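Structure request: Protein SCO1/2, Solimonas aquatica.
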Amino acid sequence: MPAPSSNRSLLLLTVAAVALAGGLLLALAMRPDAVVLQSGTLLPQPRALPELNLLDDQNQPYAQSRLQKHWTLIFPGYTSCPDICPTTMALLKQVLIQLGPQAEQLQVAMLTVDPERDTPERLGQYLHYFNPHFLGLITPEPNLKRVAQTLGVVYVKVPGESGSYTMDHSAALVLLDPQGRLAGYLTPPFTVDALVQDFRKLLKSGA
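Returned structure:
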């Protein structure tokens, strides 16, 4: 029988997924002339972000200005993740390969939801294994909670045996536009071909 904490985390993520799906459908209905994405959709209007106060995987401040002049894709995850995180990073590696020179216009970043264990060095080593241009983002609590709420990310710590734990987290990719604004969400299941086509549409349209 699942542990109560597992039930709570599953309920939390399920509610978040339903809310996100409903928001995406509403956005699509309100913005019929927008770029139609196979893997998700754009918000009716991009939303400006407050200062996030993050560090990168070089332990340097991640200034808001670094979000400018390119699309940014943020995935919430952590280096001890057993399945969805390495699978998603490997998939995004293939997406950038398929995009070719256009990949220079897309920054892929992983926001760790496990700052207790994920140091900047550990995060950088993990991501650079997949692609040397992947970026790690980190911030301690309670700022992580604020950033997650700002980006529409959900996560919860699930205790295990002997003090161990895992992190349940939402699997949607957060899309920021070249002005550093929250532009939309891409939701699983993902395929390389669909994501490549979506990014080519975005890069062509300048949406």
